[in-house]
Amino acid sequence: MNAIPPFLDHLVLATPDLAATLAEFTRRTGVEPAPGGVHVGRGTRNHLVALGGSSYLEIIGPDPEQAAPGRPRPFASLGLTTARTLTWAIAPPDLDAAIAAARAQGYDPGPAKPMSRRRPDGTLLRWRLTDGEDADPSGLVPFLIDWGDSPHPTAAGLPLTPLLSMAGSAPAPEAVRRPVRSLGTDLALTVGPVGLSFTLDTPKGPVTFH
Known about the structure:
Elements: E1 8-14, H1 18-29, E2 34-39, E3 44-52, E4 55-62, E5 84-90, H2 95-104, E6 112-118, E7 124-130, E8 143-146, E9 163-170, H3 173-182, E10 188-191, E11 195-202, E12 205-209
Parallel strand pairs: 1-4, 5-8, 9-10
Antiparallel strand pairs: 1-5, 2-3, 3-4, 6-7, 7-8, 9-11, 11-12
């Protein structure tokens, strides 16, 4: 079992208070996340940290500069009261082929939908990701992403905190392991409450987030 899953694109650390979580991340790691961009019309914005290679950490939360969107903000339905590692994304070599392969093995990650955000320098990033209603709700099974012709977020010269490992827990790990493997990747899983964790190599030593 690899400490880092194949095709890892990014981890999602969601928070109800972006400023507070960014300050806490900087205090614990000694690294200040870089502004990522604004999700226009969705009421959120993010900050990013490189994890090594083409992987990164996304810290996402409500954008105080946007008016309340006409639909729930992403993750709002979870009623977060503190920052939490919600899910992760993989970038397979061929997104559509990976979706078809997973469906053939009995897991439907959902269709690929277009999304976008604008970087602080004005660059518009466009991508496709799976966001199916029938996708596994635990967050332990990754969603799939394809950046197409857009520059990858790690190409923007992000601050670096190398990812040492990531893992998950679930009451029935095998039920999670099957759909994860159907997507061509893997995740270290143990028995326990549903949750994701990851450990970073930082100037202050290894730091683990849940």
